[in-house]
Amino acid sequence: MMIDFLKMQGLGNDFVIVDGRTRPIRFSAAQARAIADRRKGVGFDQLIIMEPPAEPAADIFMRILNPDGSEAGACGNATRCVASLVARDLGRERLTIQTISGLLACTIRPDGLVTVDMGPARLDWQSIPLARAADTAHVDLAEGPLADPVCVNMGNPHAVFFVEDVEAVDLPKFGPLLETAPLFPDRANIEVVHVTGPASVRMRVWERGAGITQACGSGACAVGVAAIRRGLVEGRLVTVSLDGGDLIIEWLENGHVLMTGPVATSFTGTLDNSLLDVPA
Question: Range of 215's domain?
Answer without folding.
Answer: 120-261
